[in-house]
Amino acid sequence: MDKVFVKGLRTDALIGVYEWEHEQRQPLLVDLTMDWDQAAAAASDELEHALDYAALSQAVVKLVESRPRQLIETVAEEVAQLILSEFQVTTVKVCVSKPKAVAAAQTVGVEITRSRS
Predict the structure, then answer these.
(1) 98 annotated active-site
(2) Which of 3, 7, 93, 98 is catalytic?
(3) pTM
(4) What is the pLDDT at residue 36?
């Protein structure tokens, strides 16, 4: 299966379990890898046959920034469900990183893979 990916999509979210984390937006980085058959897009050279990663990226940022959450696990699951339902991919891998969560680490995060049932 072919893949489409988006790496390092930055969002600024109200995220965390501590009260102060809901007072100041923090960066999250989202990496996405989606199964997508590229044959029609390659043959036609038309966006209508491709997975529109610009529109997909805008939808993900809008979702993540829409409301506060405690856990990046929740963000990952909601992003996966959005992509599966709105963009008609069959499988998506979502990695959400929170660079400022642990002072001694470059970043921490979660990675999930979901498929349409």
Answers:
(1) yes
(2) 98
(3) 0.94
(4) 94
